[in-house]
Amino acid sequence: MGVVICAIIKSVGKFVLKIQANGGLGSAFDELMLNHCLCQHHGVRIAGVIINKVIPAKYEQTKNYMSKALMFNWGVPLLGCIPDRHFLGCPAIADLERLFKTKLLAGQAHVMKHYSVSEINLVTTSLGTFMETLRSKPSRTLYLCHVTRNDVILGFLGEYQRRLQIGESFESTLVLCGRSGHYNLSEDMEEMIKSWGAPVLHVGYSTHQAMEMIDNYTPKLNSDDTHRVQDAIEHYEKYIDFDQVLQRISDKEDV
Length: 255
Prior knowledge:
Blueprint: H1 3-12, E1 15-20, H2 25-41, E2 46-54, H3 59-73, E3 78-83, H4 93-100, E4 104-106, E5 121-122, H5 127-136, E6 142-146, H6 150-166, E7 173-177, H7 187-196, E8 200-202, H8 207-216, H9 226-236, H10 242-250
Parallel strand pairs: 1-2, 2-3, 5-6, 6-7, 7-8
Antiparallel strand pairs: 4-8
């Protein structure tokens, strides 16, 4: 929370403080204290607190402790305690297109498919090992390889076509990496990718940079991604007391 935001909130009224508890109780309370001090300094009244992305295994502990601590220390209620939902943090190909400022070369039907960042597979092995991995890993896996690995690209295209012919699901995507101006995808290979229709994304970054960017990226909700939007609504509405939120915000008394 910044000084400008505090100034805007002060002119409007009370504020529901929302924090993320990715690291557990300790880090969550530390972040709360920092934001509380900032609110006090700028005269912002806190109506309540919502804690987001709580580690599921620590949900009850976090909820019980924070409810008591908030009321005892500041006299404000815990308005919501939301366990982390892994799927909401999984980027879709559309998110990666925005991140890398590029578009799928082919396979546009896959643009709203989501991929787990923890299961990204960087291909540095031989073609034979890659093909074994491709056939043993879950159908929806994100693979990264260097743009010069024509053998891997052809293997990926071939497996895509094989699955189509036998009617098997194939939801994996291949991300081709290589610094712009140093490594390029040949015109013949690009044409082959487009004609075969397999989902392939070409980014102008090294494999290390691309993996780091994906790992650090937080996908945002957008109206086009109706699956994730609906999932977020159904997840959050179970854990936030919206009636109390509205009541606390509209309450005229200071908190």
